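Protocol step 6 of 9: fold each sequence in the batch and record its structure tokens directly after the sequence line. For illustration, a two-sequence batch is reproduced in full.

Sequence one:
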Amino acid sequence: MGGWSKPLELFADQVEDDLVEHQKQIVVDLVDEITSRAPIDSGQYMANNIVSIGSPDYSVKRDLDTLGTSTRGTAKAALSNLKPFSLVYIQNNVVYGEIIEFGGYNGPTLKVNEAGYSRMAPKGVYGLSFISVTEALK
């Protein structure tokens, strides 16, 4: 005779735990992509890639991070209390963040290409990171 090897409430708990771990991994992968694509001058843009749960965090940090190590660690720490079905935000609030993503610098210069993008991020950061991570999920 067939049956469940576990009570259904334990199965539901396991599904929620798996969901949280999967969501954490997606966020970690996104932050890894963002930090690998982020242009580095002073390190302020890198340090301001912020992860928050439930609501956006509009702060701007004065920290500098030229390697991404601190940024990745802070992102992982922010996920420590993630609950199932939570909305997670990844954002960058430095004033020039939109210009890095969409272009608009006056160029060309040593740091800016003809299209107005940072030469270190000639097609932006967040959009390409999102595409890369979602493609890996397929």
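Sequence two, same batch, same settings:
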Amino acid sequence: MNQLCLLTGLTSSDIASWIQAVVGAVAIVVGAIAVWWQSRRARLEVCEREASALDGIARMLVHLKETAIEAREERKKIERWPEGHPAAPSTRSQEVAEAVRGFPLGAVLNEVAFEALLVARRASREIEPLVGPDIELDVNPNFEAVFSAYTGILEQQIKQLRAEAERRLKGEKPLRESKPTGVASR
């Protein structure tokens, strides 16, 4: 007999079988860990892309709010930029509002971002007459209250978008997950 180990009584073919079994088990464990790591990494990359998109929409809403505030303040002045001038706050506000209204809703897969864009679109339409290029000598206090309410709504949407972006960066599931259209839920 071809015994390699005097204490165990195993033959060389028995030892080869055991080594093959141990190496196979280690390979299975390493393979499982590799698959888990790759799927986790892919999921985190998706989360990072979603967080980046949410942050981009939040920044767009920040610009909408800030340009509207600038335009509102400029509107109260007597000496200001000529109407339609590219540096006029009302022109910049109108451009940002058009960008918000023109953002493709089909590209938004996150429910929080979708809702924020809908709210921002409505707010931009509602405050447009309040930030336009017309001079406003006698400011109606109701206009100020309406404008403040809409900027508050925009600020709330910005906070929700940023909170959702933070959740996605941590790898957490969306608060409200939207389902692609045409797919039946089980």
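Proceed to step 7 once all outputs are recorded. Observation for sequence two: Confidence is low (pLDDT under 50) at residues 178-186.
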